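User: Here's a structure from my thesis project, written as structure tokens. My advisor, Dr. K., wants to see whether a designed sequence matches the one we expressed. Can you design one independently, without my sequence as a hint?
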């Protein structure tokens, strides 16, 4: 195998522990948690494996240089001094992405522009040719991160955010991010050993992520492209070997995954996405109003969903959340119900006491993932058995 190098997997706030565990289980070395990120060591094959197999990562970055910077000119000079021909042909294309946490530098677009100038000027001065910028499908995507006066230059091995799994043909008005959906399901402790339900399934993201977790299917198998496929050292044979080894670890699933939505258009979209993900054997989507349904059978049910927050949908939230509580209490015994919301006021109207409450962000919305345990029979009866 090749040499190990440092990589950084980026994630959402609150998912650092999940990602750390995922990386450890995949076989990463020297795994170290940061804020919205986890760093680790691995070789080229592991970089392919991380992109294919991590459910809670948004990007896998490969740092290639770190230095201090105290001015834009110093950034330009130090980037110009790097040997960019190791990573890109003079006729290639590039894109720069900059993130900044600094009082010295305040404008990420300007930093990206300055970085691009340094790389382009270096090629022009040494070869007489210059790479062009291509924001959509660059041959090389460079990440520039400045924290105070520490600058890290990384190659972005993923390209598009890893939440773009490739199975979604259709979405509804407020689709949940696939990485967020996978993280919520993992956080809820679902292990594929019971039936699973999303009673407000929208375009089916939660259902598909749940099925992939249950069957241990790598989440990013259906992606059209990763950025590393355009790198100078792209090894298609190694990639296919890694892909086959991950597919070898899939497992059977012997329960049901059920999705309800009261909008026929959402049901149709969910069914299309499930079919596209080739998971129709495991997932059933029905046109139902959750508030008029009840649980089938006495077995344990695991429920994870993303109810409307009132941000984009015009509903009476207090009444809506009260109906969630009433439906769970009256019609769904022996159910562990988890959902995420950013509306803390509406949450008070559920009328049940949550047994867990975890702070997360849905996009930029400060949210809570809450768990309600609905017992079979009375709670007292449960402990007297």
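Assistant: Designed independently from the structure alone:
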């Amino acid at each position: 195998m090749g040499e190990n190098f440092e990589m950084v997997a980026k994630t959402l706030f609150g998912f650092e522990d999940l990602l750390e565990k995922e990386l450890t289980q995949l076989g990463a070395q020297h795994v170290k948690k940061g804020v919205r990120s986890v760093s680790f060591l691995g070789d080229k094959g592991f970089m392919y494996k991380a992109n294919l197999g991590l459910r809670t990562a948004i990007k896998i970055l490969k740092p290639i240089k770190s230095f201090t910077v105290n001015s834009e000119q110093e950034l330009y000079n130090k980037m110009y001094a790097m040997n960019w021909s190791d990573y890109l042909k003079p006729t290639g294309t590039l894109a720069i992405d900059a993130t900044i946490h600094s009082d010295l530098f305040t404008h990420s677009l300007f930093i990206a522009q300055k970085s691009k100038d340094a790389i382009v000027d270096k090629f022009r001065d040494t070869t007489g040719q210059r790479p062009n910028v291509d924001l959509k499908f660059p041959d090389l995507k460079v990440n520039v991160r400045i924290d105070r006066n520490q600058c890290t230059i990384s190659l972005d091995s993923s390209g598009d955010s890893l939440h773009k799994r490739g199975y979604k043909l259709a979405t509804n008005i407020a689709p949940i991010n696939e990485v967020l959906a996978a993280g919520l399901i993992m956080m809820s402790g679902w292990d594929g050993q019971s039936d699973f339900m999303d009673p407000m399934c929208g375009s089916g993201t939660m259902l598909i992520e749940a099925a992939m977790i249950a069957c241990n299917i790598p989440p990013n198998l259906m992606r059209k492209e990763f950025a590393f496929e355009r790198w100078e050292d792209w090894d298609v044979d190694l990639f296919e070997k890694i892909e086959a080894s991950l597919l070898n670890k899939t497992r059977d699933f012997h329960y049901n995954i059920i999705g309800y939505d009261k909008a026929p258009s959402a049901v149709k979209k969910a069914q299309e996405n499930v079919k596209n993900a080739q998971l129709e054997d495991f997932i059933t989507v029905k046109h139902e109003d959750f508030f008029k349904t009840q649980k089938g059978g006495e077995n344990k049910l695991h429920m994870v969903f993303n109810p409307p927050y009132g941000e984009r949908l015009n509903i009476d939230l207090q009444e809506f959340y009260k109906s969630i509580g009433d439906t769970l209490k009256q019609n769904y015994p022996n159910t562990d119900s988890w959902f995420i919301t950013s509306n803390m006021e509406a949450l008070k109207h559920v009328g049940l006491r949550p047994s867990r409450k975890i702070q997360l962000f849905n996009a930029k919305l400060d949210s809570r993932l809450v768990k309600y345990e609905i017992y079979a029979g009375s709670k007292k009866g449960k402990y007297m058995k």
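When you compare it with your expressed construct, this may help: Confidence is low (pLDDT under 50) at residues 379-385.
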